[in-house]
Write a structure and sequence with these properties.
Number of helices: 3
Number of strands: 0
Number of domains: 1
Largest sheet: none
Structural class: mainly alpha
Length: 90
């Protein structure tokens, strides 16, 4: 059902960005990351996700757009690589 936040773009955007930032902060806090490059990669990845969220919230791409599917696949692959680096450096 939800709270109907899709009708209030600014509130929906603020909540989604807050959840993303909190998630990244918790991830960085709870995981021992020795590599500064990996930490920077995770933060840059978060910034890119915020930029994409800004684009899709305020200028909108249709959900069925091939670009959205491509971005989802690309971000999934990037997240996989960042997480795989963690496992190989433990």
């Amino acid at each position: 059902m939800g709270f109907g936040l899709l009708n209030y773009k600014s509130a929906e955007f603020a909540i989604e960005i807050a959840l993303l930032v909190i998630g990244i902060a918790l991830y960085l806090k709870r995981n021992v990351i020795k590599s500064a490059g990996r930490k920077i990669g995770i933060v840059v990845f978060g910034v890119v996700l915020i930029l994409v969220q800004t684009q899709t919230t305020f200028w909108g791409w249709p959900l069925s757009s091939n670009r959205i599917v491509l971005l989802t696949a690309l971000f999934t692959a990037i997240a996989f690589v960042l997480e795989k680096q963690r496992r190989t450096h433990i």
